[in-house]
Amino acid sequence: MSESRQLPSYPPRRPIPTAALLQFALTIFAGATLLFACQPIIGRMVVPLLGGAPAVWIVCSLFFETILLFGYAYAHYVGTKLPIRAQVVLQLAIVASVFLVMPVSVDERVMQRLTAEHPTLGLCLVLLRSVGLPFFVLSTSSPLLQRWFAELGEKDPYHLYAASNAGSFVALLGYPLALEPLLPVHAQGRALHTGYAVYAVCVVACAFRAMRARSDVRVDTTPAPPQVLVTSGAGPRHTTPAQRWRERLVWIALSFGPSSLLLGATEYVTTDVASVPLLWVLPLALYLLSFIVAFAKRQPIKPATYSRGTALVAAIVAAITLADVTGPAYLVIAAHMLLLFLASVVCHRGIAERRPHVTRLTEFYLLMSIGGVLGGAFNGLLAPWLFDDLYEYPIAIALVCLGRASLERAGSLDWRRIGKDVALGAAVGLATYGLVKLGAARRIDRTGSFGWMFGVPLVFAFMWSARPLRYAVAIGGLLLAGMSRGYDFGTTIWADRGFFGVLKVMVDSERRSHLLVSGNTMHGKQALDPEGALIPLAYYHPTGPAGDVLGPLPSWDQELVPRKVAVIGLGVGSLAAYARPGDEWTFFEINPSVVEVATEHFTYLRRAEESAVVHVEVGDARLRLREATTAPFDVLVLDAFSSDSVPTHLVTREAFAIYKRALRPGGVLLAHVSNDHVQLQPVLGALAKDAGMYAIDRRDDDLTREEKAAGKSRSEWVLMSERKDALDLTLRGRKDWHPLAAPAGQSVWTDDYANVLGSLRF
Asked: How far apart are CA 635 and CA 171, in angstroms?
């Protein structure tokens, strides 16, 4: 027998003036717009100061969700415990207090001091200091103003939630498309200040209207009648306290899944493309759009359609992930974003169908916020501590697939058969895991193994998509089994997950070399035999562009003039193989775990120290270069990438000004621009022209079978200098390098704006 939920109907106590409705709706809209403009603005300020790591935005999101929870808790307490006059006085006081900390800004030196030892805690303290109070006050806006609106006689103020989400959506899309390109980041902080002043005036007006309504009409303060569940073919029955607690847990659970999926999808995308505002706000905007769709009064698309769409797109995302498809980038991103949107609509619609009477409005928002914070804490705090890879993302996908049960007909999640559902779903995951290990043992190439290793189990999983629990366990098991597949690079011998991402040291399948892998990208390797260990491999091979500039190797010619070389990005220390006797090399590395890898699992640095002076500076390269006492350098190498993500703050006009100051007259800047997703050559061409530098590049992608067997990888590098003769002198007549011109219309990236979208490889 199907079961539907129906909220009790209460007649309005008095007609609501249209002007009042518009006033409250616009104020809530303005508050939400400012609230979600805060996030990308402050994120844009702090991300460059922490090396552009994707985890910066994840921690920012967790911080904002936590402050939002405190804001909702405050609104719930004030709205239920204080009379309207006391609510107004207190709220206006805290609204006014925000002007004491405006405009929003970040002190760079304070930031570096607080995040030096503990980046996550330090970043939270910086955020609390710079934007904590404004964000807290703005987070109280929607629930408290909706409650004040109910004082006017409105029986169902939930539709104002759409105004809140619309404001959030406008802010998130407006930031990368309008605000970021038009205003410098510090001017954005001042614009936020101005917008807040307008919002404060609107809050004052709403407060006085609510107080007048309260004095005109006696508000019924009797407890709300118990919520009723109407069962088809049966009479109504009242909910019990136990049922209410179960309902609260459902609100939290259905909020947890989409929140975790949001952060998982964001980290997945920014790890392989770039940690930039557009890729932060796109997932968050879709997440908020799902609230607008889920809480809309009219539902032109049936909820079951969203549910079936979620199951289908989850299978597509699983196929893309398991097949290790990395491009075209926009299609991969679109698949993950579509899953986020559909799954969030499903879970949030499940919440909307269970929303309570207006007397429990602030409690409802508070519990939804608790679910969101728990989801964020799982991704931002617990998962990095528990897992050595991004396992939280497939777990979140499984959870939102399970959330489909909230929209299915009664009995679709048959608790009497829960054991069977879990067992069958887990069997798919375990079988896939066994196939993965079989493929690894036999060293089977993934191209020829996808069909039988993942395709068949995926078909079995999708056949069960009508049973949410069974399908959720199966799809989660499939993805987790796929993540255990390490034989594409080799066997993992060391792994670490920290603030700056996941690192793995692996032995290749033929046990001939060690490799460093970050995300989906190999960042360097070294042969295990003593003679081969002297030669830099992969992108740094002596016959490649890096060898053209930094070679020959010391063992080939001992009569070369000593140099001072700076390298931004340590990796495994491959470039140290080019250190000559008397050289002074300085490596700048922001991730302490990379330093540990280079010194304990690879020998390039140790061998270089036998004849040259080698320094390793831990910290952000831009700040360290600005303070470096060893400058000026003869050569500055830019080789700082995390997976295939671009640290945009290292390829801006301001960064190039620092590089130029760090180079001696006639010095050269060598940049590694190999990237599967972003075309960096036009960006560097424009930056070189803007900085008054000549630029040439070499694409080394036509490798012979012998070169591949010798450990060489395809790569592309750009060489720049203020003096053209310095380029000729450095290359010593090599002919594979070609002039790099700035394409027409290519903008110069700055600290305030970097158009990564325009540089994606479509």
From this structure: 43
Position of tokens 């802010």?
A: 171
Of 312, 332, 205, 314, nearest in space to 268 by CA: 332
Output the DSSP codes for 473-520: HHHHHHHHHHHT--TTT-EEEEEEEETTEEEEEEE-TTSSEEEEEETT
- The whole-number pLDDT of residue 612 equals 92
Closest CA to 404 of 305, 333, 478, 299: 305
Q: Taking residues 507-514, report their average pLDDT.
A: 82
If you compute the radius of gyration of the chain from its CA atoms, what whole number of angstroms results? 29
Class of domain 501-752: alpha beta
Find out whether 675 and 760 touch, Cβ atoms under 8 Å.
Answer: no
Nearest to 457 by CA among 472, 440, 478: 478
The mean-pLDDT minimum among 53-57, 141-145, 300-304, 566-570 falls in 53-57
pLDDT surpassing 70 at residue 288: yes
Of 140-149, 497-506, 542-551, give the range with the top mean pLDDT. 542-551
Q: How many CB atoms lie within 10 A of CB 581?
A: 12
Could you tell me which of 323, 330, 310 has the C-alpha nearest to residue 458?
Answer: 323
Residue 650 or residue 216, greater confidence: 650
Tokens 């305030």, residue located: 752
Other Cβ atoms closer than 10 A to 480: 18
Share of the chain above pLDDT 90, in %: 31
As annotated, the residues of the chain forming the CATH 1.20.1250 domain(s) are: 14-218
Residues in a beta bridge with 497: 502
Extract the runs of DSSP E, i.e. beta strands, from 519-559.
Answer: 521-527
Portions of the chain given CATH number 3.40.50.150: 501-752
| Residue corresponding to tokens 């498809």 | 325
For the chain, what is the mean pLDDT? 82
Report the candidate in 168, 159, 215 with the shortest Cα–Cα distance to residue 40: 168
pLDDT, average across residues 409-432: 74
Task: Find tokens 């887990």 and name the residue.
Answer: 426
What phi, psi does 535 have (nearest 5°)? Answer: -100, 125
DSSP class of 464: T
More confident residue, 169 or 635: 635
The hierarchical CATH code for the domain 14-218 is 1.20.1250
Neighbours of 17 (CB within 10 A): 12
Give the integer Cα–Cα distance in Å for 523 and 4. 55
Question: Burial code of 170-206, b = ≥16 C-beta within 10 A, e = fewer?
Answer: bbbbbbbeebbeebebbebbebbbebbeebbebbbeb
pLDDT tier at 755 (50, 70, 90 boundaries)?
Answer: confident
Task: Report the distance separating Cα 204 and Cα 207, nearest Å.
Answer: 5
Phi/psi of residue 486, nearest 5 degrees: -105, 0
The angle at the Cα of 596, spanning 673 to 562, to the nearest 5 degrees, equals 60
Least confident residue range of 26-40, 367-381, 455-469:
455-469
For 22-73, give the DSSP string. Answer: HHHHHHHHHHHHHHHHHHHHHHHHHGGGGTT-HHHHHHHHHHHHHHHHHHHH
Question: Is the pLDDT at 410 greater than 80, yes or no?
Answer: no
Picking from 571, 589, 588, 567, the residue whose alpha carbon sits closest to that of residue 579 is: 567
* Predicted confidence (pLDDT) at residue 155 exceeds the cutoff of 70: no
pTM of the entire predicted model: 0.79
Integer Cα distance of 72 and 687 in angstroms = 46
Contacts of 423 (CB under 8 A, 6+ apart): none
